[in-house]
Amino acid sequence: MADRYRLFSIEELPSHLIFEILTSGRLSAVDLAHLELTSKTFGGSHGLYPQKFRSLVDLAASQLCALHSIYAGMSRNVQIELLNRCNGNWKRVLRFLQSVEHSSDIVETSAGNQKQITTGRYHTLLISNSSVFSCGSSLCGVLGHGPETTQCVSFTSINFPSAAHVVQVSASENHAAFVLQSGQVFTCGDNSSFCCGHRDTNRPIFRPRLVEALKGVPCKQVTAGLNFTGFLTIRGHVYTCGSNTHGQLGHGDTLDRPTPKSIAPLEEVGSVVQIAAGPSYMLAVTGNGVVYSFGSGSNFCLGHGEQHDELQPRAIQTFRRKGIHVVRVSAGDEHVVALDSSGYVYTWGKGYCGALGHGDEIDKTLPEPLSSLKSHLAVQVCARKRKTFVLVDTGSVYGFGWMGFGSLGFPDRGVSDKVLRPRILDSLRAHHVSQISTGLYHTVVVTDRGRLFGFGDNERAQLGHDTLRGCLEPTEIFIQEMEEDTGLA
């Protein structure tokens, strides 16, 4: 009987069973790299395509890449370019794909937790293991804690009407939107412009409320503009509602919409995989890497070389003509940053304070590659008012633009200084950053271990500290009550 239940090493398993374990989808690129170093079983080729793959782990990584949604949307030439950019290392290709996904979604930490950070103008929202916490200024009920709350000096749990598993959140100046695992969307905050998707505009929505108009239309992402909101469905369609002064809703007119309406032209161009809202404009990225923009053309944010408003989605031709496959975009107040499938970064719009990172303050009317970061494989881009952050696959963060009360993270620079070219945040070198988000005057990052660091202005407690007025360098945010909370009410 003892022999029947004897312990055995995974190395004793046949190669095809080990391969099935490696490609189960539960292992990260880092996990695979660690396994490859542990024994010859994982590091050897075992006669499986010896010329093409360096090891069994390398073969497994290539299979996981092929199954990844970002990689699957790339053309064969684009896939080859990414592999070459990673020096033929499939584990690095996989790390790039997973890092891009996590930086704009939920971060799976090494401690087994799930986190996502989102910064509004003067507040911060945090998802931790499906629960949502908020801190900072609760202007118009944006924090979701009720009419009696005007400010939260520490991260406080948001109660939803019923048990809710939140998977994504977006915050703007005066309103916020939440996506549940079920695909339902809740909103709260100022609804005077219909941006929360409810017809009731008489008073702010102080607690998260279900967007009834989207019942039966499951969503996977929301993005909050100044007075409007975008909703991305699981099917890849985009809905918008709210103010439409500049055509930012994408329906071909300037009529406001009290409830979410699908953007018909985008349904005809294929599945949309990401959306990003600026103050009065919007960007949509399709699965085949095309970027569409619409809304206010001021500051050249639409990327068409002119400042005309676009009332419906228009493809940015610079990327199309050059065969550039874009995977993510970030819409700032006055400029835009894009990330392509090979980890290259592009910026355009208003160059004031060096926000575009080209060493000057000149506006760029069309997307222009950020040459100083070409030797790095970027995985996230993040833009806000006059500043930009770029996260690379090694976990390092580069920042440039306006210091904004220390929100750029360089303690040796003045609070109103300009950084005209990308510069690494030395104060975060000891950590592997997985996600970054920046508000008007504050910035928060999540590390691969789930630790939170914030820097910049804390006058309204938007960093979750009740004693500090500001942090010129990254300061860890400890949230004791978060560990004690059992979930949303």
Automatic annotation (TrEMBL):
<feature type="repeat" description="RCC1">
    <location>
        <begin position="343"/>
        <end position="394"/>
    </location>
</feature>
<feature type="repeat" description="RCC1">
    <location>
        <begin position="236"/>
        <end position="288"/>
    </location>
</feature>
<dbReference type="InterPro" id="IPR000408">
    <property type="entry name" value="Reg_chr_condens"/>
</dbReference>
<feature type="repeat" description="RCC1">
    <location>
        <begin position="289"/>
        <end position="342"/>
    </location>
</feature>
<dbReference type="InterPro" id="IPR051210">
    <property type="entry name" value="Ub_ligase/GEF_domain"/>
</dbReference>
<dbReference type="Pfam" id="PF00415">
    <property type="entry name" value="RCC1"/>
</dbReference>
<dbReference type="Pfam" id="PF13540">
    <property type="entry name" value="RCC1_2"/>
</dbReference>
<keyword id="KW-0677">Repeat</keyword>
<feature type="repeat" description="RCC1">
    <location>
        <begin position="395"/>
        <end position="449"/>
    </location>
</feature>
<dbReference type="InterPro" id="IPR009091">
    <property type="entry name" value="RCC1/BLIP-II"/>
</dbReference>
<protein>
    <recommendedName>
        <fullName>Ultraviolet-B receptor UVR8</fullName>
    </recommendedName>
</protein>
